[in-house]
Amino acid sequence: MKTLLHICCAPCANQCVTSLREENIEVTGFWYNPNIHPFTEYRSRRNCLREYAKDVELPLIEQDQYALRPFVREVAEDIAHRCVKCYEMRLFQTAKTAKEQGFDSFTSSLFISPYQNHELMKAVAERAAETYGVEFLYRDFRPLFKAGQEHAREHCFYMQKYCGCVFSEEERYLKANKIIP
Q1: Residues 29-87 pLDDT 10s
Q2: For the chain, which domains are there?
Q3: What is the three-class DSSP state of 155?
Q4: DSSP-based three-state secondary structure for 6
Q5: 79-118, pLDDT tens digit by residue?
Q6: Would you say 120 and 83 are in contact if contact means Cβ atoms under 8 Å apart?
Q7: Which ranges of the chain does DSSP label H, i.e. alpha helix?
Q8: Is the bond leading into 38 cis (omega within 30 degrees of zero)?
Q9: How much is the CA Rg of the chain, to the nearest whole Å?
Q10: Nearest 10 degrees: CA dihedral of 18, 130, 126, 42?
């Protein structure tokens, strides 16, 4: 089976790739993250992923577009519920790319994070699979999260401090400084 793995970052991807390969699944990485801001953060995550992919001989498809304005337009009307739009943007594009490029299925490294809304992501991915007629390969990678973070530290990966969007960075800042919005 050939699967397209949407990758948010190398620290989240490394155990997903290993796990899928252990199942004899042919994995190709897919970089598409219009939510990540500012550009320096976007570039750091992308470049770390490129190095990781090269090191483990992971084919990587990049839709390399720093897309602040399209992302903000998508979430601006309901910032409190922005995550669903963010998941839709990334998972629908992954499903579309998987279909167009002849993959059997798709999934995402987002499914390793205990900080993401797992059930919401799963529902979005299932809709994307139905829309594009390509299988969503569901895996709950969360039990591998700690090992992935340890691997990332051991290999000196760039380690981000927030999910990626400017609004999550704002929330991190406010929480760290005990500021109530």
Answers
A1: 999 999 998 899 999 999 999 999 999 999 999 998 888 888 888 888 887 888 889 99
A2: 2-176 (3.40.50.620)
A3: coil
A4: strand
A5: 788 888 999 999 999 999 999 999 999 999 999 999 999 9
A6: yes
A7: 10-22, 39-55, 68-75, 82-100, 118-132, 145-154, 166-176
A8: yes
A9: 16
A10: 60
Using the structure block, give the residue that is written with the tokens 């800042």: 173
Residues for the chain: how many in total? 181
With H, G, I as helix, E, B as strand and everything else as coil, classify residue 160.
coil
CA nearest to 20, candidates 86, 107, 80, 113: 107
Regarding pTM above 0.85, the answer is: yes
Paired tokens of 29 = 């990485």
Provide the token pair at 137. 């390969």
Distance from C-alpha of 66 to C-alpha of 174, rounded to nearest angstrom: 25
Any idea which residue has 């949407």 for tokens?
6
Which residues, in sequence order, are CB contacts of 161 under 8 Å at separation 6+? 172
